[in-house]
Specification:
With about 120 residues, this protein is mainly β. The chain contains 2 helices and 8 strands. The longest helix has 6 residues.
Length: about 120
């Protein structure tokens, strides 16, 4: 399997990407490749199974979202440096050290056991 560092942006969305911690698959993973897809993120979805990785982001908002989110801010190596639950119609404070934001439907991180200090990988 190809391992992809968090900070390396692909030119196209990878097919069949997975979010992995300690060789355990946590969830399927979407990685928007265009600016418009990244801006759209999870807007207009009624629910979401899996995770979405927004590379180059240091904060996110939930204006217009139909559900609350679990948010993890990651450094350039994929280390989780902060997690939070972001209710609808809110904005997170920017974390300068962050190089990517991982979003999932609220409750997913508890289900996965995701915590600060976890090192995440992307696998295809």
């Amino acid at each position: 399997m190809k391992r992809d560092p968090i900070d390396d942006a692909p030119t196209e969305e990878p097919s069949g990407a997975w979010l992995v911690r300690d060789d355990k698959v946590l969830a399927s993973l979407e990685i928007p490749s265009s600016r418009s897809a990244k801006a759209r993120g999870l807007l207009s979805r009624d629910d979401f199974d899996g995770a979405i990785l927004l590379r180059g982001a240091r904060s996110v908002h939930t204006f217009g979202m139909k559900f609350d989110l679990d948010i993890a801010l990651l450094d350039k190596d994929g280390l989780v440096i902060k997690t939070l639950r972001l209710n609808r119609n809110r904005v997170s404070a920017p974390i300068l050290r962050a190089r990517a934001v991982l979003e999932a439907e609220a409750g997913a991180f508890a289900e996965w056991g995701l915590r600060i200090g976890d090192k995440l990988e992307i696998r295809e």
